[in-house]
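Homework help board

Subject: predicted structure for assignment chain

Our instructor gave us this sequence and asked us to write out the predicted structure in token form, then describe one feature. I got the tokens but I'm not sure how to describe them. Can anyone check?
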Amino acid sequence: MQKLIFILLLIGQSINGQIKPGKYSIISDSKTGRIELQIHDDKTFTYINRNHISCFVWYEIKGKWKIEFDKLILIDSVTAFKKKLNSAVTLLRTTIYRISKNKLIFNSQYHNKNGDKYIYGRNLNGNFSFIE
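My token output:
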């Protein structure tokens, strides 16, 4: 009986913990642009934010990804500003999504200096659906 439960857990994990490389689009009502997350076969990702009428505020974020159970973990470097100071720092940011069939649901985000309060110059968040 224990072996059967273990095998069923492994099968369930392999189904839930898989991600399709390709393009994911943010689930949004916005008509001003697009936000896209591209998952590449080489374990890298590109987050493209074109969700504004002005191209001066568009941006891209690149980093690496990995899977742990039913979570997609994105790791990137981001420039941030410490509250109440005029200095910028580079942080290692981790963003976690729950994988649910063809959707990526935002779960949490943290950086390598967790006790401090920072303002990111470029955000990486939102819920995504697979498009191609």
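Reply (TA_rk): Your tokens look well-formed. For the description, you could write something like this. The helical segments are 2-16. That's the kind of observation they're looking for.
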